[in-house]
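Exercise 7.
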Amino acid sequence: MNWTILDIPSQEGRLAIVTGTGGLGYETALALSRAGSEVILAGRNPQKGSIAIARIRSFVPAARITFEMLDLASLASIEAFATRMLAKLGQIDLLVNNAGIMSPPHRQVTNDGFELQFGTNYLGHFALTGRLLPLLFRSHKPRVVNLSSLYHRSGAIRFDDLQWERGYKPKAAYAQSKLAMLMFAIELQRRASAVGWNVISTAAHPGYARTDLIPNGPGDSSLLQKLNIKFFQPLASQSAAKGALPTLFAATSPDAVGGAYYGPDGFYELKGSPGLAKIMPQAKDEAAAAKLWELSERLTGVVINPGQLSATQNPASA
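Solution. The predicted structure, written as C-alpha cells, is:
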C-alpha cells in the first residue's frame, strides 16, 4: 500500500494529544496539524516543546497547536497533566502514546522507582491513557495509538522481575517495554469491544527510523556501531517523517482496524509504506496480557475499566 500524508483525511474538528516533542512525535504532530487537527504536544522539556511548536507553525501558520508539560517518568506529572486536560477539554479524539527512551547503559529508575524504560515507555502511557479515558470516551470515534518496535519480537514480560532489579540488560529491557505497549494496545481493544465502546486501539512501529532516540540511548561508540551508522543505516533506514507514517495511518485512516499493528512494508519492516506488521506470539497471549494489565493497575494506581463508563455517556451508542 503506497500510503502517504496526502492520504490523511481531513482532521478538522478533532483534537489529538501526542507525547514526545522530537523525531516521530514532532512529525506526527506536524502532519496532524497540516490535516487540520488541533494538537496538544506533550513532553518533559519546555524548551524543546517551544522549538517544536515554532517549527510546526513555520510550516503551518494556522496550526492550532500547544505544548503541555508531561513527564512520563512521574506518576504525579501524569496525574497533573490529566487534571489540566479534564478541566479544559471537552473531549479527546486521538491519543498517540509515542514518547520513549531507549537502552540507557546502566539501570535507572523513574520518580516512582520503576525501571526507567518500563516505567516511561509503558507504565507512564498506561497511566496516561487511564486518566484520559473519560475524555476519550466522549469522542464519537476515538483512537489510541501505542508506539511499539521491531524489538518487541525479542521481548518477554519478566513477571518475576519486571523492574530488572537482577541482571539489567539495556536492549532486553527496551524490548520488554515495547512488547508491553503492543500487548496494551491489543488488550485495550479487546476490553473496549467487550463493552461496546467504539474505540480503535492500535499499535504502530516506525521500522528503522532516523530519530534522536538511538543517539540518546546507550551511546555505543564501538567500531561496529560506527560502521553501522556509516554503511548500514543509509541503506536500511528511513527518515523520521517516513517512520511516522505507520502511526499516522493507524491514527487517521478509515482502513485502520482495532487491535491491528502497523509498520513499514519493506524488507524486515525496516522501511517502506505503512502495512500490517508482524505480531509475535507472546504479544497475543491473552492470559499474559490480562496479568500485565492487573499488575499495571496495581503499580500505577490507575484502573482502566471502559465498562465503568455508562453506555449512555458514549456518543457512539446514542
